[in-house]
Amino acid sequence: MFDFLRTIVTPPVPARDVLLRLVGAFVLGWIVAWVYRRTRPESKAGSSLQATLVLLSILIATVTQVVGESPARAFSLVGALSIIRFRTVVQDTEDTAFVIFAVVMGMAAGANAPWMAVIGLGVVSTAAFVMRPRMRAVPAPAAPVEYLLTVRVGLGIDVDALVKAPFAAHLSTYRLASMGTTRNETAFDASYEVVFRRDGSAEGLVKALNRVDGVQKVQLEDEQADDD
Fold first, then answer.
1. How far is the C-alpha of 29 from the C-alpha of 23, rounded, in Å?
2. Which among 80, 84, 178, 197 could bridge 172 via Cys, Cβ 3.0 to 4.6 Å?
3. 102 and 205 fall within a common domain
């Protein structure tokens, strides 16, 4: 009882030293989180884990000072901390390495080993930057969508001259795929494989072709949808 009160009045570690060690753990944990953010892909560098790394460094520094050189305290804290479970599973092994990195920095700060923390921080951070992915996956550009356009015109009419202006306004490329007469042989159908421009419009192309004198019918189909 008296030993406990004596510890409160005169702590084994001065309060100023405790504060300095915890502030050092905060700085070290923040640097670990910064290295993590700079060396991990943006899709995997979660903000939650970055905050966890900082808090974990401070908590481990606190635990290290509480344990001190007492084996009894060490075993008691191991039993108490074993109850804690992370609800989110760390899926990447490199993320686990950063968690251990934060733990080591917190232990070094709590054990009053600043040079060990600085040297370890420099070596591990350098290794993390050297081993980070050099090339990030760049999404492949989407393949252009091809459509099958069929234009029906009367016999004796130059279909290329009729479709030239609407095609130039809405299409980036086009190619004549087939041509044939209708059953009654009063008209013929010209089929084109077409790709629209970014500012082109399927609806606008169909309306423009229907307004052309001599065009009897316009039909537009998605070739990829037909293949599926």
1. 10
2. 197
3. no
What is the residue range of 187's domain? Answer: 146-227
Distance CA 60, CA 105 (A): 8
* Token pair listed for 202: 């399927």
> Full-prediction pTM beyond 0.85?
no
**CA-closest candidate to residue 157, choices 216, 214, 224:** 214
Q: What is the pLDDT of residue 23?
A: 86
The answer to whether 209 and 150 have CB atoms below 8 angstroms apart is no
Residue at 84: amino acid letter: I
Q: Is 106 exposed, middle or buried, given 0-12, 13-18 or 19+ CB atoms closer than 10 A?
A: buried
Per-residue pLDDT of 117-132, as tens digits, reads 788 788 888 877 877 7
Q: Quick check: 26 pLDDT over 60?
A: yes
Torsion of CA 89, 122, 40, 141, to 10 degrees: -160
Q: How many domains are there within the chain?
A: 2
pLDDT at 76 over 80: no
Closest CA relative to residue 93, chosen from 55, 57, 30, 44: 44
Asked if the structure places residue 89 within a domain, the reply is yes
Q: Judge contact between 152 and 186, C-beta under 8 A.
A: no
Note the helical H segments in the chain: 2-9, 15-39, 47-67, 71-81, 93-110, 114-131, 159-170, 202-210, 223-227
